[in-house]
Amino acid sequence: MGGVVQCRNVKLPKLIEGRLLRRYKRFLADVELRDGSVVTAHCPNPGSMKSMKEAGSEVWLSPANNPKRKLAYSWELIRSEGSLTLVHTGRANAIAQEALESGVVRELLGFTALRAEVPYGKSRLDFCLDFRAGPCFVEVKNVTMFDGPGRAAFPDSVTARGTKHLRELMTMVNAGQRAVLLFCCSRAGTKGIRPADEIDPAYGEALREAVAAGVEVLAYACDVSLDEVVMRTRVPVMLAP
């Protein structure tokens, strides 16, 4: 099973400001920088990015460290519906790991080791926490979609993979193990989230089944700035359809 991982730095690299022109082909975004030049950035977010792709929005890019990379920038943040929001979904696990190791997620205090990318069945789960009472498996989901002031919803597109992970967490619980779904709410000001049944009803149904089966579902809101994204406060998950 995966190796022990040290706490990662979740501070963002020095960012470059611009205005979004368009997001297209899922992983590409054209951005006008402050000097008037236009660049094509990598969009590290496979979802629909509903509520986060309006042309003219303020966005922030990070320069690539690898000079051989085809695209010189990655899209990190957007100001969406008045709130800074993390676009780069690949950072959610580092944010969650820092929160777990620093004791922010109080429901998961007391583990003796943390392992990442742990194989289970035919897939991998984000973390395995070793407790004296046994292992606890944790799957992290990044939440960004605006659902009204102070609210967010997940997912922003159909996610068969997300539903599969819920089924695997239920299988773990049925086998007597502890399993947790941790929503990383990376839209500043989030005070609660819900399953987006109108987008993926199968996911919403599976989420409710998972809770009924004993899977622990936690949601934590993040403080988002141009310097860092830090998980801070538990917020409610509203399951009623």
Q: What can you see in these coordinates?
A:
The protein is α+β, with helices and mostly antiparallel strands and 241 residues long. It folds into 2 domains: 71 residues, OB fold (Dihydrolipoamide Acetyltransferase, E2P) (Beta Barrel), CATH 2.40.50.580; 147 residues, 3-Layer(aba) Sandwich (Trna Endonuclease, Chain: A, domain 1). 16% of the residues lie in helices and 41% in strands. The protein is built from 3 helices and 15 strands. The strands form 3 sheets. Strands 3-2-1-4-5-6 form a 6-stranded antiparallel β-sheet, with no helix packed on it. The chain is globular, with a radius of gyration of 18 Å. The relative contact order is 0.16. The N terminus is likely disordered.
Key descriptive features of the protein:
241 residues, Trna Endonuclease, Chain: A, domain 1, 6-stranded antiparallel β-sheet, globular, 3 helices, 2 domains
Summarize the structure.
With 241 residues, the chain is of the alpha+beta class.
Q: How would the blueprint of this fold be written?
A:
Layout: E1 16-24, E2 28-33, E3 38-42, E4 58-63, E5 73-80, E6 83-86, H1 92-102, E7 113-120, E8 123-131, E9 134-143, E10 145-146, E11 151-154, H2 160-174, E12 178-185, E13 192-195, H3 201-213, E14 216-224, E15 229-235
Parallel strand pairs: 9-12, 11-13, 12-14
Antiparallel strand pairs: 1-2, 1-4, 2-3, 4-5, 5-6, 7-8, 8-9, 10-11, 14-15
Helix pairs in contact: 2-3
Protein structure class: alpha+beta
Q: Roughly what percent helix? A: 10-25%
Number of domains: 2
Named at the architecture level, the CATH assignment of the largest domain is: 3-Layer(aba) Sandwich
Poorly predicted segments: 1-9
User: Helical segment tally?
Assistant: 3
Average pLDDT taken over every residue: 92
Q: What would the principal axes of the Cα set say about the shape?
A: globular
Profile the largest sheet.
Answer: 6 strands, antiparallel
Query: In the CATH hierarchy, what is the class of the largest domain?
Result: Alpha Beta
First-last Cα distance: 37 Å
As for the CATH topology of the largest domain, it is: Trna Endonuclease, Chain: A, domain 1
Following the backbone from N to C, one meets helices and strands in this order, namely EEEEEEHEEEEEHEEHEE
Percent of residues in beta strands: 35-45%
According to DSSP, the number of beta strands is: 15
- Write out the strand line-up for the largest beta sheet, numbering strands in chain order: 3-2-1-4-5-6
Give the C-alpha Rg.
Answer: 18 Å
